[in-house]
Every structure is written in structure tokens, then in C-alpha cells.
């Protein structure tokens, strides 16, 4: 992976976006390599998958540690792995301003809405309740403002009659798996 950008992926759960990034990274012409998969949930399903693929992993629960010590340990693990860009993929913890500043313009996230609409949680339910004709997902730079940084790429997904939050989430997730690898590749080569 000599000339590839080293990416660290932070997850909290099933990690399907992380898997999409890993699978895309295996293409010879992919400009990034996954140098570390880290999780705040030691029992995250995505972490087990990453281990099964012999990827470098790091797991640490912040419980009992406190946020500063927890983030210092994550930061150290990322730096030890030579990570240059951090990709959040279903990472359910807010990063502190200090962590964001230490990785300024080096952290990206995937969010299941067409930002700036529907920051935060329950994005699909809110899009349906609002009567929107389209939902979708966005990849953005992470700043101190929740889901607030520059949008790097988006994919639209039509909202169909009879959709509920779950059916829409499922179709948006498929769009996420295409959007994230493509946008990350553009980001690391820009
Ligand atoms: C995705 O919908 C992502 O947009 C959001 O959290 C979900 C994570 O899913 N931030 P997965 O863990 O990548 O499967």
C-alpha cells in the first residue's frame, strides 16, 4: 500500500459502509488502503468482520475511561497505524472539538440524508413525514458542528408511496455503499 492514502475507519455497529470501503480498497487502482478499523464497541459486528479479513483493528469502550482518555487512545492507535484520513462509518459518538481540530479536514463521514436537510438521527422518518419526494445520503467533511462540514458527494434515492423509515433506509444504504468508496477516492486524490 506504499503510495495509497492510509485510511482509518471508525465504526460502532454492523459496519456495512466500512465493508464497502474495504472491498473497494482491494482494487489495484483504488487510491486508499484501509490501515485500521477501530470501534468504541468491542462487540461491534463490523469489528468481527474486519478481524476475519485480517485487517488491523482496535477496540476500546469509553466506559469508565472518560472521553479525553478514550479519544487520546483512539488518536494514538490511528497515528500508530500511520492513518492519514479518518472515515466515520456508523460511528455513533460525537468527536470532541479537540479531536476534530487535531485531524482538521482529514475526517469524513457518511450521513443518511441529503444534507443540509435532516442532520442528526431519524433522517428517513423525518424525510417521509415532511412529504419529501427524494431522500438520500451525503459524504461530508467533519467539523465541530454535527453533520455540518462541506458536502463532498451526495446520492438521491426516490421516496416511494408506502415507504416507511426501514424500507427507505434499506435503499439509501445501498446508495451509501456506492457513494462512500467513490467519494473517499475523490477526496484522497483531490
Ligand atoms: C449508515 O446509514 C450511515 O449513513 C449512518 O449510520 C449507518 C451505519 O450503517 N451514519 P453501517 O454500520 O455502515 O452498516
Automatic annotation (TrEMBL):
Protein name: Phosphoribosylglycinamide formyltransferase
UniProt-listed Pfam families: Formyl_trans_N
Catalytic activity: N(1)-(5-phospho-beta-D-ribosyl)glycinamide + (6R)-10-formyltetrahydrofolate = N(2)-formyl-N(1)-(5-phospho-beta-D-ribosyl)glycinamide + (6S)-5,6,7,8-tetrahydrofolate + H(+)
Organism from which the protein derives: Sphingomonas aurantiaca
Residues annotated as transmembrane: none
Domain Formyl transferase N-terminal: 6-184
Site, Raises pKa of active site His: residue positions: 147
Assigned keywords, A-Z: Purine biosynthesis, Transferase
Residues engaged in binding N(1)-(5-phospho-beta-D-ribosyl)glycinamide: 15-17
Domain of life of the native organism: Bacteria
